[in-house]
Design a protein that fits this description.
The complex is a heterotrimer of chains A (456), B (114) and C (178).
Chain A lengths: L22 H4 E2 L4 E3 L6 H12 L4 E5 L8 E7 L2 E7 L5 E5 L14 E3 L2 E3 L6 E3 L4 E3 L3 H6 L14 E5 L2 E5 L7 H5 L2 H9 L6 E12 L3 H10 L2 H6 L1 H8 L13 E6 L2 E6 L4 H4 L4 H18 L1 H4 L6 E5 L3 E4 L4 E7 L5 E10 L4 H14 L7 H13 L10 E3 L7 E2 L7 E4 L5 H15 L19
Antiparallel strand pairs in A: 1-2, 2-20, 3-12, 4-5, 4-7, 5-6, 8-9, 9-10, 11-12, 13-19, 14-15, 14-22, 15-16, 16-17, 17-18, 18-19, 21-22
Helix pairs in contact in A: 2-14, 6-14
Chain B lengths: L5 E4 L7 E7 L2 E8 L2 E6 L13 E3 L3 E3 L6 E3 L16 E6 L3 E5 L12
Antiparallel strand pairs in B: 1-9, 2-3, 3-4, 4-8, 5-6, 6-7, 8-9
Chain C lengths: L13 H19 L3 H5 L2 E10 L19 E5 L1 H11 L12 E13 L5 E14 L3 E16 L2 E11 L3 E2 L9
Parallel strand pairs in C: 1-6
Antiparallel strand pairs in C: 1-2, 3-4, 4-5, 5-6
The chains are: A alpha+beta (456), B mainly beta (114), C alpha+beta (178).
Chain lengths: 456, 114, 178
Amino acid sequence: MCNSSETPTRLTRRPASSPVDEMDRLVDMASGRMSREIFWDRGIYEQELDRIFSRCWLFVAHESQIPKPGDYLSTYMGEDNVLVVRQKDGSIRAFLNTCPHRGNKLCFSEVGNTRQFICNYHGWSFAIDGELKGMYASEAFETSGMDKSAHGLHPVAKIDSYKGLVFATFDAEAPSLAEYLGDMRYYLDAIFDMDGQGVEFIGGCVKSIVKCNWKFAAENFVGDALHAGWTHDSGARAMVGGPVAELHKTPGESYQVNFNGHGYEFNQDIVGNCASLGDKELMKYLYTLQPEVAKRHGEMRSRLIGAISSCTLFPNTSFLPGQNTFRTWQPRGPDEIELHTWTFVNKSAPQEIKDRWRKGTMITFNPAGVFEMDDGENWEYSTRTNAGYVTRQQDLYLGLGMASRLQGSGMPGNVFRGQINEANQRAFYQRWHDLMKAGRWSEVPRRDEPTLKEAA
Amino acid sequence: MSQPVWILNKNELSSGSVRRFDVCGNPLAVYNLDGVFYATDDGCTHATASLSEGEIVDDDCIACPVHNGTFHIPTGQAMSFPCEKALRTYKVIDQGDSVAIDIHAEADAASDVI
Amino acid sequence: MSMRQVFPEVPVDRDTHHRIEQFLFREARLLDEERWDDWLALMAEDIHYWMPTQENRRRADKAGPYGPDRGALYDDNLHDLTRRVTRFKQPSAWAEDPPTRHAHVVSGVEAYEGERAGEYRVHSTFVNFRTRVDHDNYLLGGRREDILRLGTEGLRLARRKIVITQSVLLAKNLNTFI
């Protein structure tokens, strides 16, 4: 469905900058200790733009959002605005949303269908494949000998999709998407490929600004099941009339799994997240579906489909099964994110079920949602306290569940006992640390090798 | 009537499509709209662009691939911004299995103004 | 463009207009004062309370910036509104303690006869100020299109559509009703 590999000549990349000093001092996951400076320092943030966001595979779209040739959407990779465009041959391409003439923003609409992208400044016009087709006063450019083929849009280095989720990277040396996602694909299949027909994104993108460092949001979804019982008490009482389940009392029934920084924490109760939407029809739908998913993916994975769980794909894309919210935390400096959220549903679900899920995420996980409203303040103030010069010299704690590693579970990835844990967060920051220290992909430590085949 | 100079077999251009043909050094855009054939200059009157790389829209208009301006195919009239100057059309004579394009004569409909 | 039924706009008489205006101003004060139950009591049983999200699309795009069954910040019936109020009233709603200070400003009130007797189609503009903690200051503006219904117990809100100017909500949350 997507173009991959060949290094395009229209994307210029400079070598990575020199590393920030003392990276080892900032993060020490063996002892569960980390510095606050990684949430505040502008130099570290700029290095993240280089070594994390212009190197990793970043989520850009779901295939269902751009089904027809000429369909496009505008999104971000780090702070780079990109257009993701369905081509005439069915493939997908992505380009920097900027005119190569004087740099103006090219496309001001966030979604639509078009035959070409035309810059407002001098009328430079680009086909949906990125080629420069012409411009206002074209004769003048022809007289001056301009070669249009050298001035098309700047494409991303690679673009690919997994189960309809489209990712792109600016780094031609990045491993394949399959290798990058690695064993996390085993768990993604349980949510994004329950029945062979996959999911679709519905209801458009809901966007908001949260004045926090992107990593607070990403780490919360990678492994922080703990906060739900305290932060979201009010939301749970509003939606289900009682407190959040006391997950720490049943550590034998839940897990944290991580792989190269991606992390998924979950229990096995099939509907725990879904139940928070307070809609019995959705729970019935999942209970009915679960045995079918078990035939396809086995009992353990079938119990994930709406369970109390959360996942972050490194670096900054997360989702919640059951509530069916999918989101990217777009960095806007060390102290701000633009949150982009979507609702996903099985394509094969009845329309009524899809409508119920769209409403369900609306009332729980958007800026007016009864769960999300309490997260924003936690993350904003975890970021903001570091304005204090002395405050940011104090270390932070990330040591919960230090000795909870499970061997021989039969599950792919690094497996830990109990979802009330900080193992996934430690693995997230370990990966962050590895990438920040590495000059290029070949220098990134290969801590976790995929056990799944290349094409899962 | 001057001598038609160029013949095209109808089955060389499927319905609903447009293609560029170079006729005696003149690039023309030839259209098949539901079995009826038309011909215009291939070059847009607004900026350097090849109309045969554009798309047929609204049943009988051609949208320029560069700035999306449209022309009415049967009459060559400019229909939308930024096109203002009409397109040169050519008389097309139906000959059963083929059509003949007379590059010395305009389409009869070119005298119609919408 | 939104789907809009075109029907003649017949202004209500002055007394009715005053009554409707006072209803809206009082509603705004109830929200400023966090009198959630009193506010809920203003809703009709069949209330549809809708604040769609706005997409940046080109003018020629027939889909328009918003629509039913698309993204929304509120797409509520009475049960949904009640659940939100339940959260506001929890002592564990940490993001509400200390409380936010609200000022709901309503202006530009136009009132027309509705399609049914006893119903009124009411337009208004709003500006919402919220301040939390020391520097969290949020501003949201837009328009509302309401259907008010006059019953034995006074006016009730039966429909509200809120169109905000922001496509990216420039706030970490929206912890009030508009």
